[in-house]
Amino acid sequence: MKKFKRYCKTLQLENDRSLIEEYKKLHAMGNAWPEITQGMKDVGIIDMEIYLDGTTLFMIMDTTQNFDHEKAMTKLATLPRQSEWESVVSKFQKTSASSSAKEKWKLIERIFKLDQDAEYNAEEGYAERQ
Question: 3-class SS at 5?
Fold first, then answer.
């Protein structure tokens, strides 16, 4: 049985259909910069999914079991091309161009899980088994 931690986050996009379509293309299969996806893996992110509902993005981030969100996001911000990526995507997002990914993406609280067996908070991540 594989153990990992899960974090869920949201971010608001600008309410502009053409910008949203461009944002989707930037994240389409094979389009994310390899330095960015490698940096995520290097800090302990095992998998990530982003969903879109209108102008709201919803991220599911699965990480290593010993993942420290605060430390990992701080380290991620220093990796090659990360600040450049944040600058590029900022035009789509309802945030400041100088905001880091940590400042843009807001951790959200899980309030229900089928067969939940423990309590966790958003900052700690939710222990999961697969």
Answer: strand
Q: What is the CA radius of gyration of the chain?
A: 15
Residue 94, both tokens: 């309802």
- Which residue's structure tokens are 């998998």? 47
For the full predicted model, state whether its pTM sits above 0.85.
Answer: yes
Please give the sequence-ordered ranges of beta strands (E in DSSP) within the chain, or none if there are none. 3-12, 45-53, 56-63, 106-107, 126-129
CA–CA dist 52, 58 (Å, integer): 6
Structural domain boundaries of the chain? 3-129
- Nearest Cα neighbor of 45 from 19, 70, 64, 18 is 64
Residues 11 and 109: their CA atoms lie apart, in Å, by 14
pLDDT along the chain (130 residues), means of 10: 93 97 97 97 97 97 96 94 92 85 90 86 85
Say which amino acid occupies 113.
K
In CATH terms, is domain 3-129 a member of 3.30.70.100?
yes
- Cα 18 to Cα 103: distance, rounded to the nearest angstrom: 24
**Residues 68 and 22: beta-carbon distance below 8 Å:** no
